[in-house]
Task: inverse folding
């Protein structure tokens, strides 16, 4: 739908080239006119001359003829072959980009895909980079991290630690020297918990994903479905929540007697509903290798009778809390609940929000529990957990047996449950549309709320303590970006009611779940829950988690019937079906009851901050256009160093157009004030970051406000657009591209980035988790965000320089060569005569001097790759001091004119008045032209490899070979310019060499002089600093070598292995 | 310091090694090959042209060019050359009458003799040239107007000349041999040299008419039609002479090896000159006696059979006597040019040296200080 096919993209350079080609055409016409007028006048002077073939033609007509003759003779001036050469050079450049080892991703076994072949040089001119967030900056590997149900936060400390451990493992794998035997070993744990507070962990970047993970899960990658990374699958449940959930089974067991369970009964229904919603409110397809998809496995007999459960649910739903319990803070509330329920000595009582401390015995114990849990969950993956963990798990079991009778019972009950199900459990594969869904389903599964199968009408779900249930699926209202939510309508398996479960963006759900019908008390409880949840949502967003809200709604049968009718009507309608469906969905999704929210972590890709930093240093403005909420976006911006502490945040959120206009004006004046102030105080440290949300953006993009929005955003270092729709993304890109007229690059991974990718000058798709839409519409498809750095800084820079230089050289070459023929016209009566063999003329451009520019355009490196990577400023510098500007074009033209003058007139004066024939005169001219053109390229080249040399030598050899053979054997060919005997005689004449040497040297002298003076007097600052850096780096390397030698024996290189990238950087900064 | 840095091929090697090990060799991956070429790490020479690096080159060029220039200049100066214009533009000129009343188709030969004096004696072989000025032998239409295959002895082309020869392909429905404008406008003055002995006798100087054309032209490119040693008159039966010619092609010379298409005067003419002012080799005066100079100092007479009209287009005709050297005829330009370019290079070298001292040191200093 978004994909309107690839836009034909023409590079800036080509546009510039076209104007220059027009200049060439103008030059050609001037030359031809000169010749034709000259011929007319010349003819006037001659009457009945011996050399005149037809004296009857009037001078004017003859002049007219000569004009067209000259067009044919000088047509080489119009570089038609240049266009072909450009294409070939771009292919070559693409070849090298495609083969770059740094763009290879071992996990995906993918290289960069170059889908557009004609815009390589635009990579070197990027000024604005528009990036999607999810999947582009981040991994888009969603891992369930935290959740909040019933206003109670479950921090999943263990889970956070587990993520941490994975990271450590990956680091370790990257380091490859240290093996952390046990992930839970005290020392490493404590040092890690120091570095990261609970779940903010997740934002720490990762080094490349380890091979180890590959080996663990990767070899099974063929059969694992999408989004089923090991990280996402193994969610360690929060002990608190497990305990509460276990109450479900216990309460069902002890329904009559246990008051402790019934006290949290409402909460329990919330929790149950919450997990049920997680498990079923999605479009996940379940499959297992042994079973085909869409099959609902046969429901086994529930452990508890359904009747019993139904009874419980009915009881609970009418139950209300005493006010006392509501008022307490969630924490005290839980703890109260906790102490009441179970033995207080038991160590599940972990303070949920405190940072972990490895020495805490309670924590240790809980770790072990978690170990045990994983152990039980995944016995076949136990290879990572060693026997120590196993034994500690056993310890715990014995511990539990002594201390926690109730819980133990439940746990064992569940454990027993698991054991019987394990074999099936592990074979379940979830294939989800989005990674979020997969993460949530996996999370639900960790709490034994397992989605087992799906068919068109029903879902098979396991519930803890209950067993398999068939949930009748009535409707799915799929996700769309307008509603920003999805819903399922099911018949509740236990109560039999029609229930709507909705899952969606928090802003939407929170609005829809505003009020709650019912008694005052219930309302009070509800508003409290809502308040708490909102608080948690804010916390999550601050931590950079993706938040989703889960809500439900119980429908009365009649209500449902009414809705169903309209829904069916909408479904069957042909006209504006979409609108009707939307309308119908919106009618259903009202008055929701908020169950809770989830926080899903999406880790930053590796090296994202470094990449963004480098790009900013390179003068590229990085904008983030995301559909996420503001807090999340800001947080990500923070994490990837787009936002620094010194930066000032300007946020633009407003509801109406007028307000928006006013706000923009206000912000603009503020920025201007600040700028003025800074100018006066001469310290410009802080810069502005504009954060704008989708609604405001909508206003800002309107015609009247465009201007001020543009002005404001240009004054800001970066702009973050959050909550933006795909259309808005593309509009923003279009605005910048058209209004400022700069090169834009858009990078994204999902279908929602397609339009933006297509609009931008360079569209880059990240082949990630979200399918191929973005890749298909992109110009380049990479697998990691960090690849952008080398792609732009090195390849972009090179490609631009190569192509620009090649074009300049090509035009120079043509002008220089063609002018030789033009000068000759002054001595042959402007008759369009040539002094060079026709075939040599044709082949000169086509063969003898065609390959060197191509090689030059493909292989030249004006600056080494590592320097370009080290000094991103070079990118900006090369963009501002463009190679291919009119000035350079005219300098080249001038040089071409000079060279052709020298190349023609030195032989002319040397042979004037002699008995040289036409072709004998042309021979030294042509040969010197060849040498001049080839050596000119040697001067212009920045690097010369053996390939350059080979091609240059071959070109010259080919020329000589051709003319020699041609003049030796072709007696009567190429009629007016028969070369027979000319060249063979020429190479025996010393005069020939004398002329060629003189001409070549004299022609190249100014260029060499200019280059030498330029390089000596105007050594560019970045280059000089590069040289400095090299010296420093060399010194550092030597120091490191020394240090390594000293320490190799004594201490283990643990520190290095832990963070191999960190140490050298720090040191370099110091040096 | 010709900054030539060879980039080494470090890095990645260990990684690729382990990667290959992990990949298991047999498994085909998309991993790009880690070759110097594909990773653009080919050892490269980086010619960074600075004052310091080009300085030696400038000096060397200067030092080589100046001696060459002097050598060329001296060589050129040693060449003896004598030139005389016999067009007859002036009233006083002996050939004035001939030049005045002349058209292509006059049959009566007009002769004139021009006396001249050689200031120095010519020791070695002397080359006798005729020179034409303002004669555009390089005009496009003119250059085209010939039939190489006819000249190569192709009998078919002899009967049916190429269209390129038009309008000089046929005359009176007979094919013209040789056809075309070039042949038609062939230079047909006859020049003879007489040495006026101080004792009053006129000695004709023997002129060699062969050996003036290129060997390849004489033996390969130009051939008479028919089999060897056939009577040329018979061979050219059925063809007609070019309009402006006085004699048919088979009567150009009495020597059968220098007659017809392989007549050397003809061949020389057929090599069209590059520039409107040109000379063409006419005769060679061989040195007969080692004791005597080829052309002693003294008075000479040039006897011209004036056939060739040039005054209609303001042309000039000259006779040139010249000795030649290894570098060809007299031409001081090359020597001067070499000396000039050499000097310029040398001067620039000095300037660059100054610049290098001033700025190059500063750069180096900056490098060292860090």
Result:
């Amino acid at each position: 739908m978004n994909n309107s096919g690839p836009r034909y993209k023409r590079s800036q350079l080509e546009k510039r080239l076209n104007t220059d080609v027009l200049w060439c055409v103008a030059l050609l016409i001037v030359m031809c006119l000169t010749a034709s007028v000259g011929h007319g006048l010349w003819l006037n002077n001659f009457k009945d001359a011996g050399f005149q073939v037809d004296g009857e033609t009037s001078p004017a007509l003859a002049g007219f003829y000569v004009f067209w003759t000259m067009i044919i003779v000088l047509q080489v001036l119009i570089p038609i072959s240049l266009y072909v050469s450009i294409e070939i050079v771009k292919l070559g450049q693409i070849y090298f980009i495609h083969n770059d080892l740094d763009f290879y991703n071992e996990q995906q076994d993918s290289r960069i895909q170059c889908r557009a072949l004609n815009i390589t040089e635009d990579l070197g001119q990027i000024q604005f980079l528009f990036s999607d967030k999810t999947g582009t900056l981040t991994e888009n590997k969603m891992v369930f991290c935290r959740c909040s149900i019933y206003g109670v936060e479950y921090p999943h400390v263990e889970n956070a630690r587990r993520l941490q451990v994975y990271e450590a493992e990956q680091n370790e794998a990257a380091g490859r020297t240290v093996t952390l035997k046990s992930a839970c070993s005290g020392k490493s744990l404590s040092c890690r918990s120091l570095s990261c507070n609970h779940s903010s962990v997740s934002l720490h970047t990762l080094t490349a994903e380890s091979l180890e993970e590959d080996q663990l899960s990767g070899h099974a990658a063929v059969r694992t479905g999408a989004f089923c990374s090991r990280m996402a699958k193994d969610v360690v449940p929060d002990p608190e929540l497990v305990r509460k959930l276990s109450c479900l089974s216990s309460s069902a067991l002890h329904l009559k007697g246990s008051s402790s369970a019934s006290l949290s009964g409402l909460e329990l229904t919330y929790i149950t509903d919450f997990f049920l919603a997680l498990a079923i409110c999605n479009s996940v397809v379940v499959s297992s290798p042994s079973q085909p998809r869409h099959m609902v496995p046969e429901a086994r007999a529930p452990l508890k009778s359904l009747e019993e459960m139904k009874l419980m649910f009915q009881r609970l739903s009418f139950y209300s809390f005493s006010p006392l319990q509501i008022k307490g803070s969630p924490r005290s509330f839980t703890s109260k609940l906790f102490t009441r329920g179970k033995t207080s000595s038991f160590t599940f009582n972990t303070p949920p929000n405190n940072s972990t401390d490895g020495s805490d015995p309670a924590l240790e114990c809980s770790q072990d529990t978690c170990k045990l849990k994983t152990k039980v969950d995944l016995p076949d993956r136990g290879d990572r957990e060693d026997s120590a963990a196993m034994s500690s798990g056993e310890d715990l079991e014995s511990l539990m047996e002594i201390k926690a009778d109730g819980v133990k019972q439940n746990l064992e009950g569940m454990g027993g449950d698991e054991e019987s199900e394990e074999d099936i459990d592990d074979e379940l594969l979830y294939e989800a549309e989005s990674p979020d869904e997969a993460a949530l389903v996996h999370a639900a599964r960790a709490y034994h709320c397992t989605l087992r199968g799906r068919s068109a009408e029903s879902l098979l779900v396991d519930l803890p303590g209950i067993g398999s249930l068939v949930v009748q699926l009535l409707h799915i209202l799929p996700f769309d970006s307008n509603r920003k939510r999805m819903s399922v309508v099911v018949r509740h398996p236990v109560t039999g009611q029609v229930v709507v479960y909705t899952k969606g963006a928090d802003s939407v759900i929170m609005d829809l779940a505003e009020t709650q019908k019912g008694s005052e008390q219930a309302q009070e409880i509800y508003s409290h829950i809502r308040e708490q949840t909102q608080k948690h949502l804010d916390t999550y967003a601050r931590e950079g988690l993706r938040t989703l809200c889960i809500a439900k709604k119980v429908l009365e049968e009649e209500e449902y019937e009414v809705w169903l009718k309209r829904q069916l009507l909408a479904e069957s309608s042909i006209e504006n079906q979409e609108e009707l469906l939307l309308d119908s969905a919106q009618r259903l999704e009202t008055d929701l009851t908020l169950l809770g929210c989830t926080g899903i972590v999406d880790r930053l890709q590796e090296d994202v901050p470094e990449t963004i930093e480098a790009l900013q240093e390179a003068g590229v403005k990085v904008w983030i256009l995301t559909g996420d909420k503001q807090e999340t976006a800001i947080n990500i911006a923070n994490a990837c160093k787009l936002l620094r502490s010194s930066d000032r945040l300007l946020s633009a959120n407003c509801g109406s157009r007028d307000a928006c206009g006013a706000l923009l004006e206000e912000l603009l004046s503020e920025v201007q004030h600040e700028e003025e102030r800074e100018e006066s105080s001469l310290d410009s440290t802080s810069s502005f970051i504009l954060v704008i949300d989708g609604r405001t953006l909508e206003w800002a993009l309107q015609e009247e406000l465009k201007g001020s929005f543009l002005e404001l955003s240009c004054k800001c270092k970066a702009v973050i657009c959050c909550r933006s729709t795909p259309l808005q993304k593309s509009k923003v890109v279009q605005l910048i591209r058209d209004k400022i007229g700069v090169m834009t690059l858009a990078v994204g991974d999902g279908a929602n980035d397609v339009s933006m990718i297509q609009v931008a000058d360079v569209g880059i798709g990240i082949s990630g988790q979200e399918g191929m839409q973005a890749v298909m519409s992109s110009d380049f498809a990479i697998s990691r965000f960090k690849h952008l750095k080398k792609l732009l800084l090195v390849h972009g820079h090179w490609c631009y320089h190569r192509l620009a230089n090649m074009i300049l050289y090509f035009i120079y070459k043509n002008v220089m060569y063609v002018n030789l023929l033009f000068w000759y016209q002054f001595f042959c009566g402007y008759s369009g005569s040539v002094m060079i063999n026709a075939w040599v003329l044709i082949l000169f451009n086509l063969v003898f001097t065609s390959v060197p520019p191509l090689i030059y355009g493909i292989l030249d490196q004006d600056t080494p790759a590592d320097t370009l990577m080290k000094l991103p400023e070079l990118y900006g510098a090369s963009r501002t001091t463009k190679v291919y500007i009119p000035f350079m074009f005219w300098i080249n033209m001038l040089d071409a004119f000079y060279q052709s003058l020298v190349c023609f007139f030195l032989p002319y004066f040397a042979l004037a008045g002699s008995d040289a024939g036409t072709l004998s005169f042309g021979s030294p001219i042509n040969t010197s032209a060849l040498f001049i053109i080839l050596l000119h390229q040697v001067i212009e080249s920045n690097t010369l490899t053996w390939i350059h040399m080979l091609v240059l030598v071959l070109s010259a050899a080919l020329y000589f070979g051709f003319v020699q053979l041609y003049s030796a054997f072709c007696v009567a060919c190429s009629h007016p310019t028969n070369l027979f005997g000319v060249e063979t005689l020429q190479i025996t004449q010393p005069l020939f060499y004398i002329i060629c040497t003189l001409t070549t040297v004299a022609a190249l002298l100014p260029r060499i002089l200019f280059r030498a003076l330029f390089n000596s007097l105007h050594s560019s600052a970045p280059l000089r600093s590069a040289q400095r850096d090299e010296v420093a780096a060399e010194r550092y390397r030597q120091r490191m070598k020394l240090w390594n030698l000293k320490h190799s024996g004594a201490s283990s290189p643990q520190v290095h292995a832990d963070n191999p990238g960190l140490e050298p950087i720090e040191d370099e900064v110091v040096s | 310091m010709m900054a030539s840095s060879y980039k080494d091929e470090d890095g990645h090697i260990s990684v690729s090694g382990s990667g290959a090990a992990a990949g298991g060799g047999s498994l085909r991956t998309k991993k790009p090959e880690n070759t110097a070429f594909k990773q653009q790490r080919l050892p490269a020479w980086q010619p960074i042209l600075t004052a310091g690096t080009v300085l030696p080159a400038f000096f060397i060029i200067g030092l080589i060019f100046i001696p060459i220039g002097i050598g060329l200049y001296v060589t050129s100066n040693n060449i003896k050359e004598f030139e005389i214009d016999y067009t007859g533009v002036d009233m006083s000129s002996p050939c004035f009458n001939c030049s005045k009343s002349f058209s292509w188709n006059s049959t009566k030969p007009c002769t004139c003799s021009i006396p001249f004096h050689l200031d120095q004696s010519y020791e070695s072989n002397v080359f006798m040239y005729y020179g034409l000025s303002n004669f555009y032998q390089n005009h496009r239409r003119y250059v085209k107007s010939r039939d190489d295959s006819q000249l190569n002895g192709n009998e078919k082309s002899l009967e049916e000349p190429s269209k390129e020869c038009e309008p000089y392909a046929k005359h009176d429905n007979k094919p013209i041999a040789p056809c075309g404008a070039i042949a038609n406008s062939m230079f047909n003055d006859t020049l003879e040299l007489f040495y006026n002995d101080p004792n009053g006798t006129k000695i004709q100087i023997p002129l060699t008419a062969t050996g003036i054309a290129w060997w390849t032209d004489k033996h390969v490119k130009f051939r008479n039609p028919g089999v060897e040693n056939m009577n040329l008159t018979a061979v050219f039966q059925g063809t007609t002479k070019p309009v402006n010619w006085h004699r048919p092609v088979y009567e150009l010379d009495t020597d059968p090896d220098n007659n017809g298409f392989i007549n050397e005067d003809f061949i020389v003419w057929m090599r069209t000159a590059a520039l409107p002012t040109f000379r063409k080799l006419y005769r060679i005066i061989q040195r007969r006696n080692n004791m005597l100079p080829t052309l002693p100092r003294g008075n000479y007479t040039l006897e011209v059979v004036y056939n060739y009209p040039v005054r209609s287009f303001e042309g000039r005709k000259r006779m040139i006597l010249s000795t030649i050297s290894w570098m060809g005829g007299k031409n001081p330009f090359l020597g001067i040019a070499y000396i000039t370019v050499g000097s310029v290079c040398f001067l620039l070298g000095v300037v660059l040296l100054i610049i290098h001292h001033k700025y190059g040191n500063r750069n180096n200093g900056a490098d060292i200080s860090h």
In short: Chain A touches chain B through 92 residues (CB under 8 Å). Chain A has a mean pLDDT of 74. The CA atoms of residues 671 and 715 of chain A lie 8 Å apart.
